[in-house]
Design brief:
The structure is a single chain. This protein is of the alpha/beta class and about 300 residues long. It has seven helices and ten strands. The protein has one domain: Rossmann fold, CATH 3.40.50. The longest helix is centred in the last third of the chain and has 21 residues.
Length: about 300
Amino acid sequence: MLDPRGLYELEGEQPPEGEIGTPVLVHALSGFIDAGSAGRLAAAHVLETLEHHVIARFDVDQIYDYRARRPAMTFIEDHWADYADPELVLRLVRDVAGVPFLLLTGPEPDVQWERFVAAVVQLIEHHRVRLTVGIHAIPMGVPHTRPAGTTAHATQGGIIAGFEPWLGTVQVPGHVAGLLELRLGQAGRDAAGFAVHVPHYLAQAEYPDAAVALLDAVGALCGLDLPTQALREAGETTRAAIEAQLGESPDVQSVVRALEEQYDAFVRGRHRSLLAQDSPLPSADELGAELERFLAEENDRRGRGDG
């Protein structure tokens, strides 16, 4: 393996030794499953509402596949005006009460996974991180009318005491966040992760309620005061849009009712997975497509500032 230290540079004002104690590191990397954009929304909200600055920057050129995930460029009339540089950075953030923690955001590396993990471990050691926590979201056969469930996992069970398991044994595609947690556990370090459950018919739309669930879980586990009010308000708007669309689509209403019955039975018995691909309602994706398209259009409209 090439020297992991060659993957990143320390940047900006570094916290004096001992000033931030033994912080938590939260990571939200894009590229793996993030249904409802929950992890992205949660991380963006933290950066929009809390004091922060960059303390380390990864050399994206070494680990990013530009042809697989082409960054956006803006062309105006007769010239190129802007380029959305991909960046993978570690920030020092302070919560509402001023408690410091670290936040790692950016694209999941396309190559050199083991070297990247080793580099993150170096930063964890450098900043005396006591716990590393990853966040993302997965599509499941659940209705939007029920509280968002969360799958919690950790390098040792005591870290996530109080979180009930939703899954048994399952094999999924590899991802850097999972590999980081695995390697930290093998090294005897504490690490955990949260995957919030998003209704599979809303997986492609922004789903703020899921971001709230992630921030609440991280806050409870790590003792951080993370703001969620704006996300909760956005969640109310999204739910109102969903209900308005449901009122015009009896077919989708029937799917939601069936998912509610399935969800309630599962919660009572906790007897099987609710992963979307295991859903006994194979028509749910098709019937939910109309609703999904509607919400995607709503997100685009808000992004343009309409209404």
